[in-house]
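In this supplementary section we document a worked example of the pipeline. Step one takes a protein sequence of length 334 as its only input; no multiple sequence alignment statistics are reported here. Step two produces a three-dimensional model, which step three serialises into structure tokens for compact storage. The input and output of this example are shown verbatim.
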Amino acid sequence: METTTLANSDLTSSRITLGTRTMGTGARDSAAAGAGWDRHNALQAILEAVENGITTIDTAPLYGFGESEALVGEALHRGRLRQHVTLSTQAGLDWHDGTPFRDARPQRLFEEVHASLRRLRTDVIDLYQVHWPDPACPLEDTAGAMATLRRQGKIRAVGVSNVTGEQLRAFHALCPLTAVQVPYNLFERGIEEDLLPTARELGISVLGYSALCRGLLSGKMRPHTRFSSDDLRNHDPKFQPPRYAQYLEAVDALNTLARDNGLSGVLPLAVRWLLDQPGVDLALWGVRRPEQILPMLELDGWHLDDALNAEIERILAETITDPVGPEFMEPAGR
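The serialised model returned by step three reads:
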């Protein structure tokens, strides 16, 4: 398993990070919040991931409304694995009746860190990230609170998520950052214009999440696939006609390309593409069942060459005529 040391820290991480967004009864953007979800399978998936070399786990209070963090904590406790894992979680979102909203005030962050430490069964969080910028709270206040938590020894490193290049630069000037977590995949590449070059310039590690674009790049979506009423994908324009057919056509072509190059399908190709992008340190791979770890094993020692990259770009240009990004995911303010 490839590893890296995150910027401005001594945190060593596997380049593939286990994403836990779909673990929990309240988790959204899974096949369905209650279908396919199983607590035992989720716990086994975490243990299986660590056993196969994934030493970085990313979670957040919002995922399952606390249940994802608790599952991670239980798995690490059960396997006595805490000392072997780089643990990242997030803060700065609250929710009411299952609807998230931004709240990155210092008081909220100080409350959240204690709740996360308790659920994760640890005395320190390795990487603590502001989940979304909060326009209703001065950036200086949020950055100051994160710096305070680091001085207090409750967290080891500070990160931000879902920011622009300008916001990244401003936060880093107030509180030196280790990482920025942003959506990045074959279908959502907006960060290439601003955020990614800024992170490279500042020497901040990039964690690309949604490597499979909410399941589109898993190879399992079909024209007739339907989602539960609270599934995030009901609001994603990529899953609505006429775009959905275009994206599925791209996936079919990418799947064939992957198999022609010795892979099991489009899924490992999509993750390898992300890992091979200049400036990207970690790729988040979300799973719910232990068998979903298996495609990861195909990536060791395998990289994209220029010819394969060119073919990927050709496929995307010919199939997706009206691309759209992840803007629909933005939560409301307070």
